[in-house]
Every structure is written in C-alpha cells, then in structure tokens.
Write a structure and sequence with these properties.
The chain has 113 residues and is mainly alpha-helical. The chain has six helices and no strands. The chain has one domain. Helix 1 packs antiparallel against helix 6 and helix 3 packs parallel to helix 6. The longest helix is centred in the last third of the chain and has 19 residues.
C-alpha cells in the first residue's frame, strides 16, 4: 500500500510541476509521459490494469479507445485542464487497482482547479 501512496504523490508532483517531468508541456507530451508511467507501474506490479473505457465514462467522457482528449478539446477544456484531467484519470486508475480500496487515495482535483 505504501508504494501506491508514493505513486499518488508522484502524480501530484507531476500535476504541480509539469515542466519537471515532460517538455514541452503539451497534451501529447503528457500522454506520452503518463503512458510510460502507467506501463512502468504495471510491469513492476505496483498496480493492476484498469478498464480505461469504464474509467473514461465514470468521469463523463464517451468510451473511446483513442482516449478522451478529442472530446475534451471539443468541450473547450484548455490544454492545462486536459493535462490535469489525464493525470486525474491515472490517479483514479491507481485507486481502482487497489484491491483493498484503501482510503490512501483521494482525488487530486477537477481539471478546473
């Protein structure tokens, strides 16, 4: 459980200091970074795989194998808001992967924060 808490703290740090983790600070760079982060967590056994289509729907996005970015742009979210929402989706995936449903996890905030 401690390693999952560290992952959440890492995501919080990514959200607060994006430029330290990926350059340029764009949606595409964030998607690449977060994809690599997710794969590393999966391979290390720190998390279980999440049902991404269900996860997207739970946040109000249409199920789409390409991800919700296109819809986010259509709805008028800024690039920063999209990046924040992508980070939050990862946080929720970690929360769902926690077999015990630990209260260690909490939302990092909405994309409008």
């Amino acid at each position: 459980m401690q390693s999952l808490a560290k992952l959440v703290e890492t995501l919080k740090s990514v959200r607060e200091r994006k430029e330290m983790y990926f350059q340029p600070v764009t949606v595409e760079a964030a998607e690449s970074f977060l994809g690599g982060f997710r794969v590393a967590c999966l391979v290390s056994g720190a998390i279980e795989d999440a049902d991404w289509l269900d996860l997207q729907e739970s946040r109000g996005w249409k199920s789409n194998a390409m991800g919700p970015v296109g819809e986010m742009r259509e709805r008028g979210l800024t690039e920063e808001q999209i990046i924040d929402e992508l980070i939050e989706l990862e946080n929720i995936a970690f929360q769902r992967s926690s077999a015990a449903g630990s209260s260690t996890f909490r939302s990092l905030g909405s994309p409008q924060d």
